[in-house]
Amino acid sequence: MLMLVNLGMGICIEFKVLAALLFVASVEPDCRDVDWSVSFKRAGLSECDRWGYMIASLCRGPVDRSADHIDRLERVRCCNKRFPLTDFDEYVFENWWHTMSRDSTWSLCRDGYFLTGLFRTNIGSRLSNIKDGRCIRPLNHPSRYGHCEDVDISDCFEQAKCCSCPEDSFIAGLYRGDCNDLRCLDKIRCCKWAD
User: Fold this and answer.
1) Is there a contact between 9 and 83 (Cβ–Cβ < 8 Å)?
2) In sequence order, which residues have a C-beta less than 8 Å from that of residue 42 and are 6 or more positions away?
3) pLDDT over 90 percentage in the chain
4) Average predicted confidence (pLDDT) for the chain
5) How far is it, in rounded angstroms, from Cα 36 to Cα 55?
């Protein structure tokens, strides 16, 4: 540090900025729970309630095997990890109409994008009524991911609880199993940001 001070004020200031950025990089993502218990009961978009947030967990209400509707997806956990990317984001709607209508099928955000919301239709309350996934990519994030893993949530979604991605990962896709009920949302694809 003394050597940096002796080299000049500009280098010292740059060192302090670098140290501050390294500290910010090690801070955990800012996360918040978002209530979908009302919004996901009707047609339209349910999403993270702040700009730039991505879904890291899905939380469901009690299972009703006679009518396990998608509106039992009552809450999501949304997180924002800004550093080192810009505050400008690109949002896209991925058409999941056909993939959510078929058993044993993935519905995915395009490479480098993360799930931030779901758009449902007004007729019916099954997985096939999820029309679009709303996905986000910070503008200077590459069109690729860091490490991704498919997390089996089939046991988790058989009960009222939250099913989450591993730490520092966000949802990039949903896998519909062998039925059209919410409990048949069997897997989530969890991806980290690219380096």
Assistant:
1) no
2) 122
3) 71
4) 86
5) 12
Contact call for residues 134 and 171 (beta carbons, < 8 A): no
Q: Which residues pair with residue 77 across a beta bridge? A: 33, 57
Tokens encoding 114: 């993360």
Q: Distance between CA atoms of 70 and 73, rounded to whole angstroms?
A: 6
For 104-160, the pLDDT digits (tens) are 999 999 999 999 999 999 888 999 999 999 999 988 889 999 999 999 999 999 999
CA distances from 4 to 1, 13, 53 (A): 5, 9, 38
- Across the range 17-21, mean pLDDT stands at 37
Q: Taking a C-beta distance cutoff of 8 angstroms, is the pair 134, 119 a contact?
A: yes
pTM: 0.83
Q: Note the residue count of the chain.
A: 195
With beta carbons less than 8 A apart as the criterion, state whether 54 and 136 touch. Answer: yes
> Cα separation of 130 and 119, whole Å?
6
Cα 46 off chain centre by:
13
**Each residue's pLDDT tens digit, 168-193:** 999 999 999 999 999 999 999 999 99
Dist. CA 78–CA 20, nearest whole Å? 25
Stretch (H or E) spanning 176: strand 170-176
